[in-house]
Amino acid sequence: MDKLEQYRRFIKLILTEHAQIATTTDTVKAELIFDSEHEHYQLAYVGWQGDKRVFGPVMHFDLIDGKIWIQYNGTEDSIAERLVEMGVPTSDIVLGFHSSFKRQFTRYAVG
To answer: What is the CATH superfamily name and number for domain 3-103?
Structure first.
């Protein structure tokens, strides 16, 4: 299997698992957003809680230059570690929510 196809499958699996365990109501839903053409993948909450609008990302991944960029992780789970457990080398994972300066001090790719 092609490396990028495998990475897409891993990302979709992680997002789908989190969507299934997400606490949703009749008025707030977990939405999976998979854009394979532009390589953007998200889980977001969308809806209403009373008269308050609920909208925002829970997780956001991009595939850029053959690497998985974790752009946002609003969970307590270490998504990067989960990817490593799935077989993704640390050199193919970028913590995009950190500046490139901070990334150099992690065990993951700078960019």
So the answer is: XisI-like (3.30.310.110)
